[in-house]
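Quick start: read one record
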Amino acid sequence: MAFAPRGPEASFFQVLDQHRASLLAALRKGGGEPAGGGTHLATRFEDSVGLHMVSHCTTRKIKSDSPKSVKTFALILKILSMIYKLVQSNTYATKRDIYYTDSQLFGNQTVVDNIINDISCMLKVPRRSLHILSTSKGLIAGNLRYIEEDGTKVNCACATAVAVPSNIQGIQNLITDAKFLLIVEKDATFQRLLDDSFCTKMSPCIMVTGKGVPDLNTRLLVKKLWDTFHIPIFTLVDADPHGIEIMCIYKYGSMAMSFEAHNLTVPAIRWLGLLPSDIKRLNIPKGTLIPLTKQDQMKLDSILKRPYITCQPFWRKEMEIMADSKLKAEIQALTFLSSDYLSRVYLPNKLKFGGWI
């Protein structure tokens, strides 16, 4: 069943449809990027996958007869036994559930998180195959319906957003006719777009936020939507190194989860805004901008040295603009132009005229 059209005329989406056609053509050729996306540049990075594990990476040994690692070894065995019971009974638990089975023994949640990541990496299986789920913090809204594993029917086309499910693998019967998916960095911006009825005005579309650095489930959902529908996916982040880092996690992955890159990354994602070049183009006053901190400059330098930036010359140019100006801007800086400038002018124009990189 199709969603009732409520948004712009069909001609509005002409450039988006052309972009989707180029993405599909790239997929048929076996790559993750359209022409110009780059080639395989390093053993740890592939443009069609993102950051991933390599066979000769550094490893560490945890021994049962070593005083330094005996406790860690014991905790690994304990969690492995819990995983075995979960798999045998076909039930699931969150990392938080596992921590609270014996919080005094584990000490803190980070210990549990690290061990679960180590087990997943050691066994070379996704965490969900261990029947361990992460607690979701992300939200989703727009033209999407699906059924959760327990049979609950979810309709995201509501005035309020829906929480990203904890078991992405279990959702089924996904239905959408969305023309694009917009990933929004911050919850405050996401809520503002909801208040401005962005999903209705730009219908059909889907909007997702991971509320900052995305949790595993939000990344899994974005990946599932891409694999299922192959619709254009764009990011809306602050024009600062932290926002760029978050965008890179969605697109190329993170070192911490590089062993699961094939299940998490979507290299076809594009940077819609806020671009550093937009700041000058829109005459945003310097008074609304923020000087880069020393940590910001270090983060920016680090991103510029990453292998995937070599095949993103337009990204590099934007980051060089930021580095030269030594200034950053939050998405909220657009409110200087008008309170609804983001939803009424900025995003529609970017989407209609292909203002992404």
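The longest strand covers residues 139-142.
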